[in-house]
Amino acid sequence: MKKLVFMFMLIFIGTAANAQAWTGKGDQKIQLGLSAWGYGTGVTGTYDYGLNKLISVGAGLNAYFGGYKDHDKDNRVFVFGRLNFHLKDALELPEKLDIYPGVDVGVIGKDFGIGAHIGARYFFTEKIGVFAEVGNNGSLGVSFNL
User: Fold this and answer.
1) Among 15, 47, 102, 120, which residue has the least CB neighbours within 10 Å?
2) Predicted confidence (pLDDT) per residue in 5-14, tens digit
3) How far is CA 85 from CA 42, 46, 48, 57, in A?
4) Any residues with CB less than 8 A from the CB of 80 and at least 6 apart, and which?
5) How many C-beta atoms surround the C-beta of residue 124 within 10 A?
6) Residue (of 72, 69, 44, 71) closest to 58 by Cα position
C-alpha cells in the first residue's frame, strides 16, 4: 500500500512540476466558476486565447440567479468580450502562477456592460488550476488549460 501511495505522489509531483499558468501565443484557457459580485450573483464561463506573451483576447458569459442589475429580469445574462494583460513574465512569477488585469465589454440585457478586473490563476497540474478575479465583476472557480 505504501508503494502505491508513493507512486501516486511521484506521478502527481511530476505533473505538477510541468504546470504552466501562461505560455503566451496560442495558449488557451477555459474558466468555470461563481460570480460573487458585480452585475449579480450566479455562474460564469470564460475563454481566453493568447495573442503573444502579454495579451490574450476572449469571450465570456455570466448567468445571474439574483441581485442582477436594477432588479430587471432582462439583466440576467451578461455576454462579453475580454482583453487581458498577462504579467507573469514582467513580474517574474513562478510558472504555475499568472496575474492579469483586464477589461470586459459586452451586453447585459438591453444595456451596454463594461467591467475591469484583476485576476490570478494558479495551476496544480498541467491541465487544472484555480482562478480568482476581482473588480466590477468578480468571480472564483476552476481554470482548465487546453
Assistant:
1) 15
2) 344 344 444 4
3) 25, 15, 11, 9
4) 59, 60, 61, 62, 104, 105, 106, 107, 113, 115
5) 13
6) 44
